[in-house]
Amino acid sequence: MAARSALLKYLRVQVQAVPQNPSSGSPLFLSTFNAIRRRFFSEEVRGSFLDKSEVADRVINVVKNFQKVDPAKVTPSAHFQNDLGLDSLDTVEIVMALEEEFGFEIPDNEADKINCINLAVDFIASHPQAK
Amino acid sequence: MASLGASSSSAPARAEVLALFRSLLRTARKFTDYNIREYTKRRTVDAFRHNQNLSEPSSVSSAYSEGKAQLEIAQRQAVVYQLYAPKIKSVMDLKTHH
């Protein structure tokens, strides 16, 4: 019984000690932590995902503006080589034009995979840095 | 493709050629002067179009090494031109302000 109350007292102290920790802990540490958190998780650094329909519209516009493409043939699911009659060099140029439109760099291994409008839209919509 | 994984002396792989094309276009974008930027881009596209039907491995690899040499020149010049960027922008730059 004595052991139990001693234990309870000990536990209560422990429980009270926990919420005290943040306030009694060094405020300097907290503020620097918050500053770091703000910096690393801020909207501007993390970026935000663009709306998929907006991305699709802008991608289609870029492709339509490419000089070798017949704008009438551009559909949301058009394949660069099969439907639009472009070759691998044109595809590289289109991906570069998409980089300029959305203001970020697409790594080479990802750029190689983009061979139709659908893939381009999916990649850009899932990329936080796209603007 | 037989040329995949081949040594540098034989014809470059398709992926290597496309990577060179992309590097040249990326370097072209770095020029601060509109005229040089557009020229480098146009010259790159024209040269690759001109050589796209080469089939002889020796001529493909000589065109490839020529392109590599041009890439190095363009990269150096892009840095030099950035140091001496023109104060007045081209009219074309003003129009496409975004």
UniProtKB/TrEMBL annotation, chain A:
<dbReference type="GO" id="GO:0000035">
    <property type="term" value="F:acyl binding"/>
</dbReference>
<comment type="subunit">
    <text>Complex I is composed of at least 49 different subunits.</text>
</comment>
<keyword id="KW-0596">Phosphopantetheine</keyword>
<comment type="pathway">
    <text>Lipid metabolism; fatty acid biosynthesis.</text>
</comment>
<protein>
    <recommendedName>
        <fullName>Acyl carrier protein</fullName>
    </recommendedName>
</protein>
<dbReference type="Pfam" id="PF00550">
    <property type="entry name" value="PP-binding"/>
</dbReference>
<comment type="similarity">
    <text>Belongs to the acyl carrier protein (ACP) family.</text>
</comment>
<dbReference type="GO" id="GO:0000036">
    <property type="term" value="F:acyl carrier activity"/>
</dbReference>
<dbReference type="GO" id="GO:0005739">
    <property type="term" value="C:mitochondrion"/>
</dbReference>
<keyword id="KW-0249">Electron transport</keyword>
<keyword id="KW-0443">Lipid metabolism</keyword>
<keyword id="KW-0597">Phosphoprotein</keyword>
<keyword id="KW-0813">Transport</keyword>
<keyword id="KW-0276">Fatty acid metabolism</keyword>
<dbReference type="InterPro" id="IPR003231">
    <property type="entry name" value="ACP"/>
</dbReference>
<dbReference type="InterPro" id="IPR009081">
    <property type="entry name" value="PP-bd_ACP"/>
</dbReference>
<comment type="function">
    <text>Carrier of the growing fatty acid chain in fatty acid biosynthesis. May be involved in the synthesis of short and medium chain fatty acids. Accessory and non-catalytic subunit of the mitochondrial membrane respiratory chain NADH dehydrogenase (Complex I), which functions in the transfer of electrons from NADH to the respiratory chain.</text>
</comment>
<keyword id="KW-0444">Lipid biosynthesis</keyword>
<feature type="domain" description="Carrier">
    <location>
        <begin position="53"/>
        <end position="128"/>
    </location>
</feature>
<keyword id="KW-0275">Fatty acid biosynthesis</keyword>
<dbReference type="InterPro" id="IPR036736">
    <property type="entry name" value="ACP-like_sf"/>
</dbReference>
<dbReference type="InterPro" id="IPR006162">
    <property type="entry name" value="Ppantetheine_attach_site"/>
</dbReference>
Automatic annotation (TrEMBL), chain B:
<feature type="domain" description="Complex 1 LYR protein">
    <location>
        <begin position="16"/>
        <end position="72"/>
    </location>
</feature>
<dbReference type="InterPro" id="IPR008011">
    <property type="entry name" value="Complex1_LYR_dom"/>
</dbReference>
<dbReference type="Pfam" id="PF05347">
    <property type="entry name" value="Complex1_LYR"/>
</dbReference>
<dbReference type="GO" id="GO:0016226">
    <property type="term" value="P:iron-sulfur cluster assembly"/>
</dbReference>
<dbReference type="InterPro" id="IPR045297">
    <property type="entry name" value="Complex1_LYR_LYRM4"/>
</dbReference>
<protein>
    <submittedName>
        <fullName>Complex 1 LYR protein</fullName>
    </submittedName>
</protein>
